[in-house]
Amino acid sequence: MGSKYDLAIITGGSSGIGNSIIESVSKLEPDASLFNLSRRIPASFSNDPKRVHLECDLADRAARSTVLDELVRRISESPQKGPILLVNNAGFGIYGDVVQHPPAEHLELLEVNVCALVELTLRLLPLLKERGGAVMNIASTSAFQPTPYLATYGASKAFVLNWTLALGEELKGSSVHAIAVCPGPTKTEFFQRAGFSKRVVPAGYSHQPEEVSRMALDALYRRQRFTVTGALNKAASLFSYLLPLALRTRVAGRVIRRFRPNPNN
Ligand SMILES: NC(=O)c1ccc[n+]([C@@H]2O[C@H](COP(=O)([O-])OP(=O)(O)OC[C@H]3O[C@@H](n4cnc5c(N)ncnc54)[C@H](OP(=O)(O)O)[C@@H]3O)[C@@H](O)[C@H]2O)c1
Fold it and tell me: What's the CA-to-centroid distance between 89 and ligand 1, angstroms?
């Protein structure tokens, strides 16, 4: 495994799963240059010329477009001409009743989780087709059912899953591979940022980000089209998927509602 990509681009490498993907990729591909797009700089990026941080609020269309121009220019000018790996990982959730959050928050989520992912992929696809490569999009097990109290997040991840699978099918036989990764609960900043209560993930039912990045990259190098990380998440997703849609929605709502900050709600 490894030594396949000359260059890797990742969004949201400043923490959590994205940060672990950066470290895993640099072990597997020691010669590859790395580009990260997020608001904060990943800790390991400050003093390494092969690790380039492009500061960007991916929710901001104008800023995103400027940074993408810069990214495409830098890649085109880079002496490395081999295959490219694009990892669309940046994302966040908002927890609570849909009406509890202003429309602008839902739209910000869609910009980061959906629009940035589509724009980055489409801007970079010509280069990937020319040089070969892969697109790895981080979806979620939330993609397998409507997720009351995480409504916009779950729907955004259903988009990521379906869009990536469709893209992968269209790219069949080309030099570009696409994979959707569906992690289950993972110990990162995600839950705090989304506004969950502290003890949201039962200890035995969550992964470390390093485990998720290892499973995601295993699946990528095996050229899978999608993967759910971990046996328990695979079983839970399959179970959910087999339920009628209305029941699936109700069960998901019951489970997610339990994580309100106020236990009396
Ligand atoms: N943790 C879980 O249980 C879980 C489960 C399934 C799927 N996922 C997915 O995994 C991905 C990574 O999440 P994580 O769990 O690692 O959470 P995390 O630790 O909160 O990391 C989220 C990353 O996304 C970036 N990001 C968020 N908003 C951004 C914006 N407006 N502009 C640029 N970058 C932005 C953050 O960078 P900055 O803050 O520096 O901008 C950060 O690097 C997400 O797509 C998430 O939906 C997570």
Answer: 7
**CB 140 near ligand 1, within 6 Å:** yes
Ligand 1 atom nearest to CA at 113:
45
pLDDT-wise least confident of 123-132, 187-196, 209-218, 224-233 = 187-196
* Residue range 54-86, pLDDT digits in tens: 999 999 999 999 999 999 999 999 888 999 999
What's the domain count of the chain? 1
Give yes or no for residue 40 CB within 6 A of ligand 1: yes
Q: Is 38 in the pocket of ligand 1 (CB under 6 A)?
A: yes
Whether residue 263 is contained in a domain is answered as no
Question: What single letter denotes the amino acid at residue 167?
Answer: L
Helix ranges restricted to H, the chain: 16-28, 61-77, 103-110, 116-131, 151-170, 190-194, 209-221, 231-242, 245-257
State the residue range of the domain holding 55: 7-257
